[in-house]
Amino acid sequence: MTPKLNAAFLGGGYMSQTHAKNLLKFPSVTLTAVCDTSLENCATLKETAPTIKAYTDFDQMLASEEIDILYVCLPPFAHNGQVEKAAAKGIHMFLEKPIALTVERGESMVATAKNANIITHVGYHMRYSKPAQELKKLVTSGKAGKPVLFHGSWECNSLHSPWWMHKDKCGGQVFEQVIHLYDMAVNFLGECETVSGYAANLTHTNVEGYTIDDNSVAVLKFKNGGLANITGSNSAVPDEWKTSFTVVCENVTARFTSQTEAIFYFTDKQPVEQVLVTSDKDNETIPPGVSLSNEMYYNETVAFLNAIAGISQENVPIEIGLHTLKMVDAVCRSNGKLINIFN
User: Fold this and answer.
1) Distance in angstroms (rounded) separating the CA atoms of residues 228 and 191
2) pTM confidence score
3) Alpha-carbon gap, residue 255 to 138, rounded angstroms
4) Most buried one in 44, 133, 134, 315, CB count within 10 A?
5) What is the distance between the alpha carbons of residues 16 and 205, in angstroms, rounded to a whole number?
């Protein structure tokens, strides 16, 4: 039986609004409260759920509301102990990536969540597209054979929000965007072992306040022996968002032309079998009102709620959020040196 849950939000921006709309699809979930530094920032979320209470003080919200699950949708720099406070009260948490700005803060969050024995989920939505889930099944079952290579590229060209341009607030494009590809590499190849890379500001040096990387490249080695190379650029085509990656396994090569579409090449067959895997407009597991562009976010909501209910453990716990945080942190400080992220 699905438990009744009161949901609250930390941060009233776009991602909180996205998750709120998905949670409204579940009768067992009540949207209770939202906390943001400004009540104006909560206005759109209150339009989605008019009965939700708005706070500007997180401690006051924790003390005043009965909260079962908390969606933490903060910029990296805004983490200053809120997760630890919520965990101490036994509140399950969904955390947007990256889970923190520093590895030290991430380690504190993971330790507290573990001690509190709460369910956590990190918002790596790309794991929840239909082709990503299909490939994961093939890898987990062994049908794909050993995963040996990941190649990924993230390209865009935008100044985003003002805080996003500051290294001491967002960490950089590697932290804020390309980290999704690092997570996908972990999803298919397992734990990362060593990292070597470069991250530099090459085309925005004359933009006032722009102190983050706009181009990056990394080479990674995984515990299973697999290899990866991942690049990111905020110097590409303006207003175009291009995410692509290839996963090579012994028996299957999957080329993802976008986050939601891939071509699977079954290389253990002669001739090689080619299958297009993409989001299905007639997918019966997706309720009315959920668009294909929102399918991944809806699916990860299901995974989080199922983990809380004990139905399954196919979620993305905070430990994975820390692992990928260590990976991107290593890229940004590597400057070509090889870094063992377990040291």
Assistant:
1) 12
2) 0.96
3) 14
4) 315
5) 32
CATH class of domain segment(s) 5-122 = alpha beta
Average pLDDT of the residues in 106-125: 97
Query: Is pLDDT above 70 for 305?
Result: yes
Residue 282 — pLDDT band, cuts 50, 70, 90?
low
What's the CATH architecture for 126-290+317-340?
Answer: 2-Layer Sandwich (3.30)
Give 261-281 pLDDT, tens digit per residue.
999 999 999 999 999 999 765
Q: What are phi and psi of 282, to 5 degrees?
A: -105, 20
Phi-psi region of 225 (alpha: psi -120 to 50; beta: other; left: phi over 0): left
Listed in order, the ranges of the chain carrying CATH 3.40.50.720 are 5-122
The distance from CA 273 to its chain's CA centroid, rounded to whole angstroms, is: 32
User: Residue 273's beta-bridge partner residues?
Assistant: 266
Average pLDDT for residues 62-67, to the nearest whole number?
98
pLDDT of residue 115: 97
Least Cα distance to 189 among 86, 31, 323 occurs for: 323
**Rounded CA separation 193/330 (Å):** 11
Q: Which DSSP symbol is given to 281?
A: T
